[in-house]
Structures are given as C-alpha cells and as structure tokens.
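To whoever is covering the structure queue this week,

Two jobs came back overnight. Logging them here so there's a record in the thread.

Job A:
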Amino acid sequence: MKVYFMRHGQTNYNVLGLCNDNPEDPVALTELGQSQAGKAAEQLRNTRLDRIIVSELPRTRETATIVNRYHNAPVVVHPGINDIRSGFNNRPVREYQAAIAHDPLHARVNGGESLLDHKARVLGFLDWLRTQPDRSVLVIAHEETMRVFAARFRNLTDEEMQVLAFGNCEILEHEL
C-alpha cells in the first residue's frame, strides 16, 4: 500500500503558539493554511487516493476537504492519529515544552500522554492501516504524529524522533 502522510495546514493556534488536542475547540485553518492545503492538493492532483484518513481534530478534515477536491475520496476519521494529548490544551506550547523538558520521552503532565504513549497509539494505527484493503491512502495528521511516522519508516531512535520537524502540509510518501 502506498501511503502519503501529511501534516494539516497552518491554524490560528499555530500562529498563537497554543496547544490543541480537543476536537471541540475552535481551531481552524488560517488563510495561509488554506493556501498550503491548496498547494498540497495540486501536488497530489494526479495521485490515486482510495481513501483519506484524518484525526478527530477539525483542522485535519478542513485540510482534507481542500486536498480532496481532485479526488472525491471517502474521508474517514481515526482517533489513533489524534495529536498528542499534552495536558496543556489551549495553553502555550512553550509552557508544555518546559513542563516535559526534564524527560521529553516519558513525562506525562496534567493528565496528558507522554511522547512514548503517543508513539504507541500511532503505531497501533499503522498496524490497523496494514489490514486495510486500499492501494493508496492519504493520512492527514499532526506534527507529533508525523514524527512517529517518519521515525518508524526511517528506523530512527526515540531520541532522533523527538527532534524531527515538519512544516504545515508537508508530505511524506512510504510503502506500507
């Protein structure tokens, strides 16, 4: 199966530097985020997509709607690729990073999950994805989730994984 992994377009929370892991929060693509998704749509225009899989967070579905204008593929929501539950929802990312700095891989704060907890959840999603009949899938997710995907397919250590960075609407392509 050919899988395209993509981070969502820029959001109002990205601009404000805020954490968001609650699907009920009013987080939406900015004008730039919509433009990024439009460019990704052009990049994937001639790519076969049997299905698009998004997280429960609306920014991934909003990105999918723009990308899907050339495909009309079914869009499926899967909670396994939700953003990391930071325990800092609606709070500055810098506060979250400071709170986990003592042990970035294992620290769980304010009822959130650690990076390794998140990794286990995302790897469970990949196990599920392997059982699907599709030949080509687009997965639209979040930067932390993209780190797990990239580390898995590049055979990186957990320490190497945590320093990876992905731009909005950046696309990775892998065989699964």
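Job B:
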Amino acid sequence: MSTPRVRLVISLVLALVAACAVFSWGHWLSKNHQALARFETVEWEDAEPRVASGEWVLVDARSEKKFAYGHLPGAYSLPAEAAPEYLQFAVAEWPRNGVVVVYCGSPTCSLAAELADRLQRESGVPDVRVLTGNYFKDLHRRE
C-alpha cells in the first residue's frame, strides 16, 4: 500500500513530467512557426493548377518511404535531410528562377520549412514557398 506521502511524490513527479512535455511541445511549435514565417505560404487550391501546368515545382520534404506511400500529384521527392550533393542534383533539374513549393505531412511538420531554408541557403533558389491549407486529404492519392 502506498502512503499519502508516496502518492504526493508520485503526483508531483507526474506533474513535473507533464509540465516539461508541454514546454517542449510549445518550444518546438514556436520554432516551427518562426521558420515558416520566413517563407511565403500558398494554399493547395492556388498551387495545384500551377503545378499541373508546370509553372511551379512541387517538392515533398518527407522521407522517400512516405513519398512512395502517397504524395500530391506532380510532386518530386526531396527529403529534408537529403545530402547536399543530392539537393544540388535535384535543383539542377528544375527551371531556374521558378517558384518552388515545398510541403510535408501535416500543419505541425517542420520538414517543409527546413527544406525551404536549405533550398535558399545551399542551392540559391530565390522563390521558395511553403504549402499550407487542406491538402492533407490528397496525400494518399496515387498519381
């Protein structure tokens, strides 16, 4: 049997763990929103016709495995953690000075902002945007 003192200690430890988790989650979300704030955002409804016409390049920042499972129509796979050489190779295939739209798997996913930042810093892509809005329902649609 546990004494009131043991129950109090357990309750305090659980409260501390919960507070740390909330702080960490808030810090992560804040960092993600700060990164996203650097880039212009675009809704799927506005991007889809431009991607379909070839005017814009659509890039999926998720892993190749997730891309293979399902992705938006017309998207290229370029994982956010790709090697710098692979990043340069991919960018060389895209139209120069075109708009590149990056997305990942959810509104709280930071991969799109990470890849957008790398595309600008490491590859000099001038116009990188991040896809927002209700495109998640279309991620599992096959081309």
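Note for Job B: The first strand starts at residue 40 and ends at 43.

Please reply-all if you pick these up so we don't duplicate work.
Q.
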